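G., before I forget:
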Amino acid sequence: MDKIRLGHGSGGKLSQQLLQEVFLPKFDTGFLIQCQDAAIAPFNKSKLVVSTDSYVVSPIFFPGGNIGSLSIHGTINDLCMRGAKPLYIAISFIIEEGFSIEQLKEIVQSASTAAKDAGVEIIAGDTKVVERKAADKIFISTTGVGCLFDESKTCGIEQAKPEDIVIASGDIGCHGMAIMCARNNFDLETQIESDSASLKDMVHELLKADLEIHSLHDITRGGLATCLNEIAQSSKVSIDIDEENVPVSAQVRGACEILGLDPLFVASEGRLVAIVSKNSSDKALEIMHKYHYGKNARVIGDVKDAKARVNLRTTIGSTRILDMLTGEQLPRIC
Ligand code: MG
């Protein structure tokens, strides 16, 4: 590895390698190595939940959202995945010289609305402008801070246990395919809209209910397959998934077929995987179904005390290992 490749930003295997070889040896003090959606750090006698993310999506406007709303939803969701109540966001912009002020206003409006809708305050920010071609239109970074919704309930990707149930909160891959179709000007019969959304209300209702929720992980870069592999590796369990039960809309499936992509590796921005105890799965599903972004929630598999990996029972009845994303399927998806 002597040069950065696009795959190093995929969220899959190459990203993991970059973390292990470059960042963790210099930065890690015990938090980063966990590779969680957000860190839970001690603060006075309480806990602080922190997450940061950069957004380089192309195109910056897409069906169902734009880079502004996406940059808020993504950070809010990462905080929620640890059982946090998101409180504050810091936002910074890197803008290319010549970028339209009109478009900037639209992006800022979307970010502002997304934050207000989630009850989160934007309390710090920064703007940098670089010469033409030194950036592509606009990049945004957001950092979110929150506190635990309930100090006795933290969830993490290392907490999945044998016999747990695996739930996907909705049909997967809409965000990735919306971006892909927008980028290539695909004229499909029905336009695919991004699923970009704040999952805060649904997660908080799950946390409020008397449920045993062990892991929550948002399905983003690398798709469901990568998300499940991260949980399996961290929890040292095997996760068995039934392909037949994985919710995929007909439009996403169709677009994936045309492009030769596997929906299991395509990003979402408003979906999560929940790993819950057997006793909690019915109630968790019932709660998810109340939300428009959770209406297609389904049990997709279970957790076993076996080698840390993801097994996929395919629709034709065979079983194969489902690995995390290798290389880069769709660069600049978020
Ligand atoms: Mg995440």
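The chain has a mean pLDDT of 95. Residues 37, 78, 218, 220 surround magnesium ion (CB under 6 Å).

More on Monday.
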